[in-house]
Hints:
By secondary structure, the protein is mostly helical. The chain is about 55% helix and about 5% strand. It has one domain. It has a two-stranded antiparallel sheet. A two-stranded antiparallel ribbon has the order 2-3. Strand 2 and strand 3 form a beta hairpin. Helix 2 packs across helix 5 and helix 3 packs across helix 5. The longest helix is centred in the last third of the chain and has 22 residues. Iron/sulfur cluster binds next to loops.
Amino acid sequence: MLLLNVFRWLWNSVFLETPGSNILVEDLLRVARRPEVVEAMRRFFDEADRDIAAQPATCWNRAECCHFGSFGHRLYVTALEVSYYLALGELPPRVADDSCPHARDGKCHARERRPLGCRVFYCDPAAEDWQGPMTERRLARLRAMHEELGVPYFYVDWLVVLRAINRYGNDKTAS
Ligand code: SF4
């Protein structure tokens, strides 16, 4: 059974970035139901938010950077961030275009459970010096947390993950 799970996660991490590939949402939801995982991630984000708030940069929260296509960048997330996101709220709205479905009316509607990249990224030039090193440092910590908590690691495009969760929700509704 263990070998089978390892194989499934390996398969997942290799093929996940292919649009239409099958992310194991059921496994992520199982992780999301573990209180020690949720608590560890809450502490992780509290600490990250404190660090970020101490840096010189301003976010005007217009959610422009959440429209990935027009802004010209991507957001990548880890398995633990996705599990925390699932633990704190409903399944996401449908991904209709190359934008995060939580970006509406110029605002993020998932602020409490948004991934690390959403918190660290600022378009303010004042963030140029610190956001790269901070992202590296926090991602290294996240990677270690996957090992500590026994959660298989991946690092995948946010929209690929959200589409997989949408598909999972639709399949559940249909069955
Ligand atoms: S979760 Fe919020 S901050 Fe992150 S991409 Fe979506 S709308 Fe933007």
